[in-house]
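The record is passed on directly below:
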Amino acid sequence: MTSNTHTLRSYVFSHGLNITAVAEAVSGSQSSIDPRATMRTKHGEDGYIFLFNYGAIVFWNVPEEAQALELKRLISLAAIPNLEARFSDTFMVVEQPGLPLVEFNKLLIDQLSIDRMEVIASTLAQSTSMEYYESLVEESWQQVDALLNQLKKSGTLNVLPSPVNKQIAESLSLRSTVVRVLHLLDKPDLIWEDKGMDEIYGDLRAMFDLPERFQALEYKLQLIQQTLSVVVETIRDRRGYWLELAIVFLILFEIVMPFFRH
């Protein structure tokens, strides 16, 4: 058996996708991993397109020109305002005799099946999605950092609680989305029937640092929420201080007014 090299490229979109609607439009097939969340479609002789409802797509042996056309077509089919591809990653799979081996951005495997291809594509899609969510968390932290710098310089915050509460809600929503989308603790059911792919799946996750990156995301999101909660308390304390001061002035005013009447 001679070696056969497969080229993969993944993209993540700025929004999730309705797999059912897109599958009907492109005549896609149900996935072995999760028919409700994943679809695949054939492209050319040896090409495949794997699409995930959390907004990721993986091209398997699809030329770059065709990738651009398919991305444009998908964006038009999705009918989601401002939908765009935000991040992309590349990966290589070499099909050749011997023991499976995961190297940097490359997998050596003895035999491929459509199920194995879906597992590989899903792991690559998770890694690309992780990169996207890491960028969102970084943007969120920059906003929090700006508030902290203001508090450090002036000792007070000239903001209302409502925008900060909105940031807290956004960070909670982002954390929920990360947990729901990435499914990092959920092993695909089909892997249990393929011992070789089970080991490869673990090696792929380790190569992409998925567990560690997921934990880092959770930690950062928790830190953002805790910091924003402190900021909200600081704002409330400041407003409470001025309220108490206003009450004191009102009391003094009532005490002093009788003297002016006489």
Notes: The two ends are 111 Å apart (CA to CA). The domain at 4-113 is CATH 3.30.310 (TATA-Binding Protein).
